[in-house]
Q: What sequence folds into this?
DNA sequence: CGTCAGATTGATATTCATCAAGATCGGTGG
DNA sequence: CCACCGATCTTGATGAATATCAATCTGACG
């Protein structure tokens, strides 16, 4: 079992148990490893996909590019997220996947994944679920950009990322690494860089979070979540029959 | 075959062919009809779902409510959209589904849908695809709210809705009905009502669209799409093996 | 020491929300 | 038929939020 599949199992089993046969099946998938430098594209918008990638280390994001060259990041992805699973169904990419840090990924051919859907319905539902959770996260993001103040949006984002990093063992006791420049954060929040800088300053002023370089420490999750209006329901972090 | 299933077949087959057996299987699903008055909830946030609804007439939307009572609509759904299919996997709703107009819907038990995933992998993938397209639409929406001007956002929305209405036969020669108040549109765009009103005025001033009462007529789709930076790739309106 | 990317800050212009008033329009009861 | 009513649309005025422009500052690194 490769680290990639181990991570995937961990992520999937967070939401429903996996049988030994299912784990076996995942382990048998063809995998092609690749690494990407910070700033490069794992997948280009408008490209045709014949395989889907699963990120094993590093931070990635989905990016929608606008005509004038500006971009909006529509999702951040942590290791273990099957980032590109959407491509299995979409076939033609509507967005690109970019490496926010150096990162490594594993590509799994669509032929293998389609075969999996033919013989493992429950596992298929869990993979489907993972794309559905992506959609739920995006909905929360729409609500944040559309109706929350920048400060609340940022607090919300940090709460979410903390829980998601924790699931894959990359966060504990309130600490995790978020290797994004303020300019990247601006592309997530849908704000200008300057305003993002001021929003981060406002966040620091609350005292709920310390954020130096790329290290985040949540001092008071309770109050941070309260300020953000954060409710983790949308992350579906509950194990139950699916 | 009920009208609901006919609509669903039409929507699914837009993206890949359905075999007679698959159509048969869809037709055999248990369906419970229901109607909803404008403004009511088809599905409440935080509720536990045991069935999923498919809207057969009327306009529905997904809504994320904020603590202060304001709301952000994260998606609009046209008849034939399997709006609530996400609930099959999520089990607990992260958002509510509201009736923007009087509408009718059909509820299909999760037991039936799960059974379908056990015996019809290709059909399962097409249903999965429909939730993935929802996600793609949401990504475009994030880009619109975050980085497009309100006018461009509105133009983009109209282009998208026109194509989606057209797929289900509810739009032709540039015309369709959009029974939303400006206050509702504001909740979609993430703007105040007043600003939405001014944005609509700006839209009228372009001359590309006429919009009186609830009737929209696109006079010049070409230029409207150009102004919006609209690229329909994300709607996956292409039939191919999935 | 120089350079460069990123972070920070101040000044200014633009966009947008809010408040407050009308205007319009369809429906309803007398 | 007509006056009225509530919902919606529209408009102007004002202030707050945000983008933009232009420096300056900081720290890592050759």
A:
């Amino acid at each position: 079992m490769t680290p990639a599949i181990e991570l995937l199992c961990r992520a999937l089993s967070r939401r429903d148990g996996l049988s030994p046969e299912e784990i076996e099946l995942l382990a048998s998938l063809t995998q092609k490893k690749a690494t990407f430098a910070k700033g490069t594209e794992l997948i280009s918008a408008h490209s045709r996909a014949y395989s889907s990638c699963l990120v094993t280390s590093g931070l990635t994001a989905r990016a929608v590019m606008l005509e004038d060259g500006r971009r909006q990041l529509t999702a951040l992805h942590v290791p273990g997220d099957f980032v590109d699973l959407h491509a299995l169904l979409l076939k033609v990419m509507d967005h690109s996947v970019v490496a926010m840090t150096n990162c490594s990924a594993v590509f799994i051919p669509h032929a293998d994944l389609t075969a999996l859907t033919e013989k493992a319905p429950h596992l298929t539902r869990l993979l489907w679920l993972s794309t559905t959770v992506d959609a739920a996260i995006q909905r929360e993001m729409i609500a944040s950009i559309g109706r929350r103040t920048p400060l609340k949006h940022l607090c919300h984002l940090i709460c979410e990322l903390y829980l998601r990093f924790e699931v894959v063992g990359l966060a504990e006791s309130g600490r995790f690494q978020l290797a994004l420049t303020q300019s990247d954060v601006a592309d997530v929040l849908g704000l200008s860089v300057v305003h993002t800088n001021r929003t981060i300053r406002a966040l620091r002023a609350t005292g709920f979070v310390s954020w130096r370089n790329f290290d985040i420490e949540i001092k008071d999750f309770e109050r941070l979540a309260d300020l953000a209006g954060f409710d983790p329901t949308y992350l579906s972090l509950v194990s139950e029959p699916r």
Remarks:
- Residues 181-183, 193-194, 197-198, 200-201 of chain A lie near DNA strand C (CB under 10 Å from a C1').
- The longest strand of chain A covers residues 51-57.
- DSSP finds nine helices and ten strands in chain A.
- Chain A touches chain B through 52 residues (CB under 8 Å).
